[in-house]
Amino acid sequence: MNQSIKRAFLDTEDGQILYRIGGEGEPLLLLHMTPRSSDEFREVMPILAQHRQVIAMDLMGLGDSDKPSRIYSVADYAQTVIALWDHLGIQKSSILGSLTGGYIAGEVAATYPERVEKLILCNVVGFDKDETDKIAQRYSQGFQIKADGSHLKQRWLARVDYLGEGELNHRCMLEDLKCFGSPIYTGWAVANYCLDAPERFRLINCPTLVLSGEKSLEPLEKAGLAKAKNQFWLLEAIHQSKKVEVAGGTLWMVNQKPEEISTIILDFLA
Question: For 224-233, what is each residue's pLDDT tens digit?
């Protein structure tokens, strides 16, 4: 981890939340996808920290944050964002949310509009009822340990077409392993929220960037978890929004194209 980015913990009634923080100036909070952690932003944080204060938290139940003692909702996750801002003395901040984190970021902007400056929704894929049922079922059970260790190879191969066999796939697999043996709370929360999201997101009134990778939908389409026809809802729901598509960008483009993504982020925030 870059030396300019430090790690700390926030104590809450449901356990500790790990967060990373660095830089000075106007704040930007980064919320990761499932089943990742703040490691999703390892490459971009040192770049962004040259221009503003940047914070990334491990959502409860993922990464090095504690698993909550109850099933969390997207509204609960939004409250953890407010708790962290209050702890850090931040009255107003911009937010970038990646897929799962984007749904949480949108709920923060809808519920606490006075606390959000600008919003960036990265690869926030839309789902229909059949897909949310599949996702809820998958994440309520979580990843299962196999006696022969085949679960390790299964998780390694899950993204290999998009990440290859190198360090990034290894980092993602380590995050997967922290989810075994319990529900994957963030995915379950978003599955139960998705169908209400268009109505909730119509309440968002801050400038919003819809940032998507050209290839971000591919793995979800292949798994039968998303359809191209359901991907227009964000621009329809949020009036103050504009879209940028990253050529060749995947679901993991924040790690794979950090310079390009950082430039897009900083240009929008400026």
Answer: 899 999 999 9
Q: Which two tokens stand for residue 40?
A: 């999703």
Report how far residue 7's alpha carbon sits from residue 145's, in angstroms, rounded to the nearest whole number.
Answer: 30
Record the tokens describing residue 151, joined without a space: 């679960």
pLDDT of residue 2 exceeding 80: no
Q: What is the pLDDT of residues 143-155, one digit of tens each?
A: 999 999 999 999 9
Total tally of structural domains belonging to the chain: 1
Q: What is the structure's pLDDT at 78? A: 98
Pairing mode, if any, of strands 93-98 and 53-57? Answer: unpaired
Question: 266 is written with which tokens?
Answer: 């900083």
pTM: 0.96
40: in domain: yes
In the numeric block, the tokens 């982020």 are attached to: 265
pLDDT over 60 (residue 64): yes
pLDDT of residue 44: 98
Residue 43 falls inside a structural domain: yes
Is 186:59 a contact under the CB 8 Å cutoff?
Answer: yes
The CATH number assigned to the domain holding 243 equals 3.40.50.1820
How many degrees, rounded to 5, is the angle at CA 106 between CA 105 and CA 108?
A: 65
Domain that residue 254 falls in: 6-269
Backbone angles phi, psi at 54, to 5 degrees: -125, 135
Contacts of residue 157, defined as CB under 8 A and 6 or more positions apart, other chains included, come to none
CA angle 243, 99, 128 (to 5 degrees): 90
